[in-house]
Amino acid sequence: MLLVLMLLFGTVVEYLARQEQQRKDMLLVRETTESAARLRALLEMELNAPLQLSQGLVAHVQALSGKASAEDFNTLLPNLVRQGKHIRNMGVAPGNRLTYLYPLAGNEAALNLYYPDLATQWPDIEKTIRSRKAKLSGPLELAQGGRAFVYRIPVYLHDGSYWGIVSTVLNVDDVWRLMKQQAQQLDVGVALRRAGGENWGDMLFGEIQNFQAPAVVLDLNIAGAHWQLASWPLLQADSLSGWFRLVGWSTSLMLVLLIAGVFRANQRWKDTSKAFEQNEKYYRTVLDNVDDAIVVLNPTGQIHTFNNAAEKMFGYQARQLRGLPFQILFPQPPELQQGRGAQELTAQRLHGETLQVELLQTQIQLQDQTLQVLLFRDITERKRIEKLKSEFVSTVSHELRTPLTAINGALALVTAGAVGALLPAQQQMLDIARSNADQLINLVNDILDMEKLQAGKLSLQPEQQLLLPLLQQALQRHSALALSRQVKLTLEAAIAPDLTLFIDGSRLLQILANLLANAIRFSPPHSTVHLRALLTGDLVQLMVSDEGPGVPVDFIPRLFEKFSQADSSDSRLQSGSGLGLAICKELLERMHGSIFYQQAEQGGACFYCELPLHAAPAAAAVQQQELS
């Protein structure tokens, strides 16, 4: 009997040992696959990110119909190299001759290089040109020394003619070093090979045997190249066969230990069950004492959990809703999207009453199930207060504008000499009063515009309008302000004179007025404010840049928020309500456009707006106008 029991126990233990080994093997394969996926994502990001910058340069050349100037390339190439990671240099070769190169230091040998003279590389370059597709070549020995990847894009203009090549040189050693560091952190080995074309199977990194089992092989999605990545575990799964074999062939002492183990396992199960019940009671207590309503949905969207706060908010008992679809809580059910952020919605109580709620959504994993957690917060009172505040601000602003208009009109009459000649000191004081009255009127108008925008009451009147006259008009309106500040205004319009946009012209002038006024106010004397217009694909880009101090880095995230100012102290040098940029953003969005900020090349601020192009422009011609 003991012998049978020992054999039976040994069989069970051997079976469990094999199951455990299989489980560890599967776990190792899964971890290796995840590590390979992370390495693939790293390589794709590190190589594609700098390579996409070349596509932007190609698009620029095509947009200018191949007529890009040396000044364009001398400006664009340094910016692209600084933005791109692992970029050793970038070059432009009109007519296959490397004419523009950055950085030039250390690369002088490559400048003016004529690609057909490269006996070893020209066949591959010529094939790339004929294919009209970008290609990532390498590693190659460079004329300026060293090895690198070279990403070449043949540039064909819109009329189908061949213009030249844009090339980006990436540092091979940087990419390999980053990949090896990541692989070491993941405890896996890594190898790369080509997976397409006549060079299929050529090794880029590692050995060919690295692609054999148990390695995981994944295809890489890298622009202009077909590569495969192999990854294998450096640590093997621990084997328990010796341990279980010893247990299986143990003596009667092991039977005693087995019995003792069974009793011990039974006790631990009881302890675990008790702890689980206590944890469940604890979490239920926490859930029911949260002020916000919490509703948990099962994977099919049915209500699984309903806390006490939710019962009070919606008027239901948890048992009434368990198993019902969550849409019962809304008069118009929303679409649930992970990571969407807070939503303000209208919810519905048991007897049909509605309330305003803020909804936050997240996901949790519970017993291999993905559950949706909805957190509701009653904002009915908050919305009521916001409405009262908005109505109050609007009413006060309207009431202020009437007397301010009268005051400003009276001051204008007095300063114009309607009541007689004024002494210089009187004239100076009246000019100060009129300037401040204008400032107050502008502030009230900004507040009213913002309130109308938020309430959806500000109507636009879009129509097809010529863009160039609007730009000239915007500069003309600010010539006096620029003259008083000793600032020069320039207009550079790389657009067709008859280019039209479907916009509200007066609102576009309001946007440009805000940007130009800000640029002039923050510009030092004898500096220049630039207004530029150019086409980028199906968008028109308007840029206003100055040579002032620029925007502090820590303030940039709040730049387009209401009442935001970089210097909000009482002693700030420049006045303003902090509403101008917020109004610009709202107006542009209503015209299907957008506004962005970046530091200008000369160190100042640069705001640029993008508007959709609804009509095909004629051939672009650069118009330049300068106002001092």
TrEMBL record:
GO terms for molecular function: ATP binding. Residues 98-175 form the CHASE domain. It is an enzyme of class 2 (transferase). Gene3D superfamilies: 1.10.287.130, Histidine kinase-like ATPase, C-terminal domain (3.30.565.10), PAS domain (3.30.450.20). It catalyses: ATP + protein L-histidine = ADP + protein N-phospho-L-histidine. Coiled coil: none annotated. SMART domains: CHASE, HATPase_c, HisKA, PAS. PANTHER family: OSMOSENSING HISTIDINE PROTEIN KINASE SLN1 (PTHR43047:SF72), TWO-COMPONENT HISTIDINE PROTEIN KINASE (PTHR43047). This is histidine kinase. The lineage of its organism: Bacteria, Pseudomonadati, Pseudomonadota, Gammaproteobacteria, Chromatiales.
